[in-house]
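Proteins fold reproducibly. Look at a concrete instance:
___
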Amino acid sequence: MEDCKWFIDKAVDYFGRLDHLASNAAIVKLSMFEDINQISEFAPTMSHWHGLNLNFFISHSFSGICGRIFPGPRAVLSLVESTIDGHGTCTNFWGSAYGTHFAVPYLRKSKGKIIVIASVAGWMPLPKTCFYNAAKAALISFYETLRVEFGSDIGITIVTPGLIKTDMVLGEAYTSEIQMGFLPGESARGCAKAIVASACRGDRYLTEPSWYRRTLLLKMLCPELLDWLCRLTLVGRPRSSKKTS
């Protein structure tokens, strides 16, 4: 919590104000629920963990997000883009909640925006990531509630990425556990550009790649089919536990 307050205070000290908050915090531990020996090892996915990745980009004209900087009319400050060690540092849910808590007073003054990186896992029952899925679902509900509480004072864009071709997803630790090759993905750079454009437009939601929006409709109309599609990711894969962060 103290780290999150430090990030916000540092930004305000540097710029004299806070206009935009982009929050991206996540860790993933892969395992079938039945294969977990020590369930407490998965508690950090919902609460706190010794590894945190938070990306904050604050500027007078928002032009950067997700670790990539794009040319803009004013400078963008990347306060943090690293892993912070120390027990009690929070991740998938609380990492975003803490940062937002300390940023809200400044964002109200500037009529600013919050861009939160959730996931399609918030509604897709992807196997081997049950706690991660639960945390992302909580994140979506949390910011939808804040949108109602803040009204027009602070804009909130909830981003729900699907399969994005990052080093983590393409790495052996991930591909050896989950079969994703049959799903079309999107480059990290393409996703980042879409997020920037969406935030500038003031969108309420963004899903990338866009075809993942159909899975939400499928969940409402035929949830059994969505369950079947998600189970396809298990085909030919061993049931063991891995951790990626």
Notes: The chain has nine helices and twelve strands. Confidence is low (pLDDT under 50) at residues 48-89, 236-245. Residues 130-150 form the longest helix (21 residues). The longest strand covers residues 155-161.
